[in-house]
Amino acid sequence: MKPINVGLLGIGTVGGGTFNVLLRNESEITRRAGRPIRISKVADKNLELARQVTQGRAVITDDATSVVTDPDIDIVVELIGGCGIARELVLAAINNGKHVVTANKALLATHGNEIFAAAQKKGVMVAFEAAVAGGIPIIKALREGLTANRIQWIAGIINGTTNFILSEMRDKGLPFATVLADAQRLGYAEADPTFDIEGVDAAHKLTIMAAIAFGIPMQFDKVHVEGIARLDAIDIKYAEQLGYRIKLLGITKRVSRNGADGIELRVHPTLIPSRRLIANVEGAMNAVLVQGDAVGATLYYGKGAGAEPTASAVIADLVDVTRMHTADPEHRVPHLAFQPDALMDTPILPMAEVETRYYLRLSVSDQPGVLADITRILADQHISIDAMIQREPGEGEEQTDIIMLTHLSREKHVDAAILLIEALPVVKSRVTRLRLEELDK
User: Fold this and answer.
1) What is the pLDDT of residue 331?
2) Pair 294, 314 in one domain
3) Is 124 inside any structural domain?
């Protein structure tokens, strides 16, 4: 049977892994796809690297446009990254009737609505399993495996760099800056780690998962994003004493309040009970916990980055597209799980309206009446305390730490309480506030 011809844009780490895995497992992949899948043309600015990887098995060019307009190419794989030239090339490929496979989460999170609309109009597929959590097949699970369920919430460790840093901070008691430098030296963090440590990368991935889970458009601009750069090692230690671990989570929930539905969409450091499986995901690994109304909780775990894990997801998409290549476009799996004309306009809740539990750490003067003042402010803001520890001050110390865990509270009430608490003369520094999720129902 005639092979499916693939044009590859970018043959760096993931592109090279895709080429090599496709070649190494050619027989197995052909048996699954029903016909051979061949990367016949590669575009990359580094022609020498492309030649080294392909070893004469593909046409090499530095002109990416020639790939997306080539009439012999059936599928274009975009592994360039970014939202500039990548967007132009993906739209050009679609307009030329090519199916597209991409690992570009930033592109989809910011321009996915435009891209999927163009693909729908042209009757082609855009597949993106590799855009979220590397080799973990979470997109397929949400879009197909859990299709019978009303998804209630998703909580994911979806950035390996930050998970490595938090694991090292907890294990070794080191400050953030020291562990970040180690992560860069070991290759877990980029020279400019901003997208990872500030939560932007996780927010891109969460945007995509929320769209599939709830049948809503991509809305990256509405994600509440907090990273780990300001996280103090002492809070990791206190969390441990209270039976929790801190992870950078991407969380999206369907909530109903006063008869109206809304969607929470947030990325931030989160306390999780240490007995939960997801709390024990260490190093650079990823994990996504999904709660469905019929199936309950399901956990997906694996490598979230790297040449071959991500290549595994890219090739799975290539096989899916190959199987459906000649299928009626109206009967393919929709890009965002729900039919395009059935997407919902359920609003994204502002962070002020989110309800969760909280960890609060206060540095206060060691004197009578302090706790009474603080608890009075919390009570006035409808915030009740679930647990508390107070560090015994050392000899000669005039201040101490108070750590509180709250019951379920609304973000705007916590914000108001923190402003009032910080205004107290006995409070000696800014209040540290972290959110807490039980993840058990």
Assistant:
1) 65
2) no
3) yes
DSSP character string of 185-226: HHTSS-SS-HHHHTTHHHHHHHHHHHHHHHT----GGG-EE-
Specify if 348 maps to a domain. Answer: no
Domain residues for 85? 4-135+307-342
Q: Quick one: average pLDDT of 137-153? A: 96
Quote the pLDDT of residue 337: 62
Q: How far apart are the first and last CA of the chain?
A: 49
Q: What's the domain count of the chain?
A: 3
For the stretch 182-200, pLDDT in tens is 999 988 899 999 999 999 9
Rounded Cα distance between 198 and 176, Å, is 13
Look at residue 441 and tell me if it is in a domain: no
> Please, which residues bridge with residue 139 across strands?
none
Give the Cα separation of 125 and 97 in Å (integer): 10
* 7, two tokens: 């044009």
76-122: per-residue pLDDT in tens?
A: 999 999 999 999 999 999 999 999 999 999 999 999 999 999 999 99
Q: CA nearest 129: which of 157, 113, 105?
A: 105
**111 and 209, same domain (yes or no):** no
Written as six digits, the tokens of 362 are: 């206060």
Q: What is the mean pLDDT of residues 223-228?
A: 98
* Banded pLDDT at 328 (limits 50, 70, 90): low
Whether residue 282 sits in one domain with residue 186: yes
Q: What is the pLDDT of residue 369?
A: 86
Query: Are 289 and 319 contained in the same domain?
Result: no
Judge if 131 and 142 occupy the same domain: no
Instruction: Decide the pairing of beta strands 296-303 and 37-43.
Output: unpaired
In CATH, what number is assigned to the domain containing residue 40? 3.40.50.720
Asked if the structure places residue 34 within a domain, the reply is: yes
CATH of residue 270: 3.30.360.10
Q: What are phi and psi of 191, to 5 degrees?
A: -60, -40
Identify the three-state secondary structure at position 138: helix
The residue behind tokens 């540290």 is: 432
**Active site residue ranges:** 205
61: Cβ–Cβ under 8 A, 6 or more apart, which residues?
A: 41, 42, 43, 67
Token duo for residue 209:
């998962």
Residues 201 and 258 in one domain: yes
pLDDT at 332 over 80: no
Tens digits of residue pLDDT in 398-438: 889 999 999 999 999 999 999 999 999 999 999 999 999 99
Kindly state whether residues 290 and 156 are assigned to the same domain: yes
Residues 148 and 288 in one domain: yes
Burial class (CB in 10 A: 0-12, 13-18, 19+), 322: buried
